[in-house]
Design a protein that fits this description.
The chain has 271 residues and is an alpha/beta fold. Helices cover 34% and strands 23% of the residues. The protein has eleven helices and ten strands. Strand 4 and strand 5 form a beta hairpin. Helix 7 packs parallel to helix 8 and helix 9 packs across helix 10. The longest helix is centred in the last third of the chain and has 16 residues. The structure holds adenosine-5'-triphosphate (ATP) and magnesium ion. Magnesium ion binds next to helix 3. Adenosine-5'-triphosphate (ATP) binds next to strand 2 and helix 3.
Length: 271
């Protein structure tokens, strides 16, 4: 068999491992007025795997991610978490089920340092008679622990994140998302606007999360580098539905792009 033949799109069932997926979305539909953003999209995410969600502009990637994260409620479709039907209709529903999201704007406060950003909105507070004072020392210890575990120990804890590089800021946003031990982390364009070496660092960090048993979903337009080299499975969306699924190790960037833009060129190329 040639490498090209091996690279034919395969069904999700064929590529997924036999374990129960951490999250499974089936035939999700979502319209905004007359715009059918999702016309029946499906994706499974297993523990330990990095799933890339790719597609042309407007294909429905962000909408699908927002359904996963509870930002949008699906009109129809099934959402299961570890095999159980789940009713995820708000971001806090998703968070409480262990689904964390890192959005493209990162939602970091530039004037605050890494520790403050890591605990933003969830500050460790003191006991009542101390007032609800932030335990800075405790937060620093916890932040250092987490960053060291993520091999980000060299990041400054005290510099405002606005003074850090794009890659460092991305890493802090990812560290913040895993601080509370989610099962699934969803990242929207984590390598956009990063240099090659910063992208590689972020890719290494994402791999270490998967190696720790998390399921990772990554929306990315960086097909030729990040998607084919640093993910396990590629789910291609087109016009709000699934167009193809590939094992990342089996494909070239061209094949993925062909599946994104239409027709069955990916298959034809392989044939
Ligand atoms: N809140 C909204 N209101 C109306 N239409 C929307 C809304 N959000 C998304 N859409 C539409 O749904 C479709 C899918 O959009 P979506 O943002 O999911 O695409 P995408 O794959 O993330 O694209 P991109 O690569 O450009 O980020 C588009 O036609 C978009 O205009
Ligand atoms: Mg988008």
């Amino acid at each position: 068999m040639t490498a090209a033949q091996e690279a034919q799109p395969v069904t999700q069932a064929a590529t997924a491992s036999s374990s129960v997926p951490l999250i499974s979305l089936r035939d999700i539909k979502k319209s905004f007025g007359s715009v059918h953003a999702l016309r029946g999209a499906s994706v499974d995410v297993h523990a330990g795997e990095i799933v890339a969600l790719v597609g042309d502009n407007g294909a429905g990637k962000t909408t699908l991610v927002k359904v996963m994260a509870g930002v949008h409620a699906a009109d129809t479709g099934e959402y299961e978490i570890e095999g159980q039907p789940a009713n995820i209709r708000t971001p806090s529903d998703a968070t409480s089920h262990g689904i964390a999201t890192v959005y493209q704007d990162l939602a970091l406060c530039n004037n605050l340092d890494a520790v403050q950003n890591l605990f933003l909105g969830r500050e460790l507070t003191g006991s009542r008679w101390l007032g609800r004072r932030i335990h800075r020392a405790e937060s620093e210890v916890r932040a250092r622990e987490v960053l060291t575990r993520m091999r980000l120990g060299s990041l400054s804890l005290t510099r405002p994140v606005g003074a850090m590089s794009g890659g460092q800021r991305q890493n802090i946003a990812i560290a913040r998302s895993v601080l509370w031990k989610p099962k699934v982390v969803i990242l929207d364009e984590p390598t956009a606007a990063l240099s090659h070496s910063a992208s590689q660092q972020v890719a290494d960090l994402i791999r270490s999360l998967a190696d720790d048993g998390l399921g990772v979903v990554v929306v990315s337009h960086d097909i030729h580098h990040f998607v084919v080299n640093s993910t396990d499975r590629i789910v291609v969306m087109r016009l709000g539905a699934n167009a193809a699924t590939f094992r990342s190790k089996d494909v070239t960037g061209e094949m993925v792009v062909n599946a994104m833009v239409g027709g069955n060129e990916g298959v034809n190329l392989a044939g």
